[in-house]
Amino acid sequence: MTAATHSTLFPQVPDSADAVLDGLDPEQREVALALGGPVCVLAGAGTGKTRAITHRIAYGVRAGILQPTTVLAVTFTNRAAGEMRGRLRQLGATGVQARTFHSAALRQLQYFWPKAVGGELPRLVERKVQLVAEAAARCGIRLDRNELRDATSEIEWAKVTQTVPADYPAAVAKTQRDAPRDPAELSQIYAMYEQMKRDRGVIDFEDVLLLTVGILQDRHDIAEHVRRQYQHFVVDEYQDVSPLQQRLLDLWLGDRDDLCVVGDAGQTIYSFTGATPDHLLNFRTRHPNATVVKLVRDYRSTPQVVHLANGLLSQARGKAAEHRLELVSQRDKGPEPVYTEYPDEPAEAEGTARRIRDLIAAGVPAGEIAVLYRVNSQSEVYEQALADAGVPYQLRGAERFFDRPEVREAGVALRGAARAGGNDSLLDGADDLPSEVRAVLSTKGWSSKPPAGSGAVRDRWESLAALVRLAEDFEQARPGATLSDLVAELDERAAAQHAPTVQGVTLASLHSAKGLEWDATFLVGLTEGMMPIAYAKTDEQVEEERRLLYVGVTRARFHLSLSWAVSRSPGGRGGRRPTRFLNGLRPGSAAPGARAGAGGGGGIDRGSRTGTGPGPTGAEPLARPGRRGPVRCRVCGRTLTDAGEMKLMRCEDCPSDMDEALYERLREWRADTAKRISQPAYCVFTDKTLMAIAEAAPDSEGELVVIAGVGNRKLTRFGTDVLAICAGRAPGTESWEDGDGV
């Protein structure tokens, strides 16, 4: 097995410190042995950086060089911290603290607040956006929902860059930041927000870092206490640290330099939150005696994917580009990236869903496929397309696995069965651990056959199925393990937030996909204005967009698909262009000073909503359908481009003439129908489509079929019932169970 390929789910704990080093490549081994700081690890995507730093910590602990309780490993997400804790546990390095910056700071703040300030730590505000809304209202400034979100983000940026309200306008001008509204107004809102927090005795997420910094700066005795506790620091994703986080790290360190940082300037994608790669790029300047190790062996992606990734960064400009890492794939050859152009966004979503269905049919697990887009609002059309194709999916950013109600219920049931042991009749006939788990979870909704479609019922089943698969892997790794052993393992995983894999296609924004990987990745919506995003004006902002696409490309292990639509809506003008970042890389394009066709083969498909579509390799082009006319608001006549508005056939702000009673009858029918065919309700019709039907009150098939979200297939299946309900009659049942699945 190569250094960073998939390992077994429950590996045996190494029996010695030297055994911890087994399987590391030369550069990873160099990282693991460099236990004296300062150390800087420049690690490209897929090069096994987490493996290198966890083995470094574990080797130090197992060799007696590091005391586990004096090590603090810091990363940026709870998921990453949980994964690090899980890996350290598997390597026999228990007792090491692996936390996010905020989590580590909050623990210290809660512990030292009574001594430093007195009394209890102020309450953390739960809904910052509500407080910002109140602050704006007190200033006489009206913000809509989007403006409110943007104002909240600006306040967060100001705080992590240590900018006070009075200095905010000058900071915006200095950094050429594209403020969402007048900086003077935002400064006013920011000042009022801070005043209201003081008046109410609450603090926010950013205050946790600010207050910890303040205490450590003012109280040398407390700072020394922390420094005695933590003597060795590891910081992952160092390119993403903000000035405030760097200040906290400096205070933790004091005059010491026992620090290991890991990062890749080519993956800096969070500057809008205050993150900057400068600390990583200037590390050697600050620490002239630092050990610097570069990890460039890519164990994740095929040479074809790596070639495209390298090509993207080869065209980059700026300081971060000067330090780019040229990745070298360690995997066998795979398929070329597939480039597909579609006539409109709905066709792009439908074509993507067809390709995904083909991949699943070819044996790629749904949980190993992802659809990545630039902004979250793009997800709706893909949710609908996957649901229509009968493909299960999960939205990235949903609640954490062990916090899901069905997982908590399953844990209670498994714990009860473990206590009862052989006295539980439910376990009669179960002759091994997996069969015991299946028996217990069958009472909670698990079955050997998954429910059809997607949605809440399928999500619940997938959660329970993930526990069943975990039990199977656990039994294989530890023959003879009992139900009590599995419960203990689940408790440890819950504490570390080390979740098992849930099977379902992942829908995620490019930002939230950072740190993840899949066998097949679909990068969608790659048009100018979306990639780079329209508000990326400066050269630096455009370069960050390029890095964001690079992050998306490097999520793929084997299959990589890149697509764009020349029009937003069916029948649109078709003037969109594919992202400039692919110029010179995709076939048929050229970039000044770049190698034409550097992306290799693959060809460009002309995707459409008609035909069967290409198979997993994307080898067969699709025919273009006829052009459709623009979709116009039936109230004001404006051309509609938003998917939700197109379903309603009117602008969101235009008055609705919906028949509320009809809408409720349609909802009741939909619920009954969904239950009858074992599908989630939205697989029958979405809420927006039901609203559109209730507003139009069609009295013929011709009027019904033109409503967005209906179409010929659903007309055939549900048309008779819907038209009957619209006419005030009871729906029939003859069409409910005929035809193909929805």
Describe, in plain words, how this protein is organized in 3D.
With 742 residues, the chain is α/β, with parallel strands linked by helices. The strands form 4 sheets. The protein has a 7-stranded parallel beta sheet with strand order 13-14-12-15-16-11-17, sandwiched between helices. Helix content is 44%, strand content 10%. The protein has 29 helices and 17 strands. The model is unreliable at 1-7, 592-602, 610-629 and 733-742 (pLDDT under 50). Strand 15 (518-523), helix 23 (539-553) and strand 16 form a beta-alpha-beta unit.
Summarize the structure.
With 742 residues, the protein is α/β, with parallel strands linked by helices. The protein is built from 29 helices and 17 strands.
Which key terms come to mind for this protein?
alpha/beta
Outline the fold blueprint.
Elements (H helix, E strand, L loop, with lengths): L16 H4 L5 H8 L5 E5 L5 H14 L8 E5 L2 H13 L6 E4 H16 L6 E2 L3 H11 L6 H16 L7 H8 L7 H18 L1 E2 L1 H14 L1 H10 L2 E4 L7 H11 L5 E5 L14 H4 L1 H4 L4 E5 L1 E2 L4 H12 L4 H4 L5 E2 L8 E5 L2 H17 L7 E5 L5 H10 L4 E3 L9 H16 L12 H9 L14 H22 L5 H14 L8 E5 L8 E6 L15 H15 L2 E10 L38 E3 L36 H6 L11 H17 L4 H4 L2 H10 L4 H5 L5 H16 L16
Parallel strand pairs: 1-7, 1-8, 2-3, 2-6, 4-5, 6-7, 9-10, 11-16, 11-17, 12-14, 12-15, 13-14, 15-16
Helix pairs in contact: 2-3, 5-10, 6-7, 6-9, 10-11, 10-12, 15-23, 17-18, 19-22, 20-21, 25-27
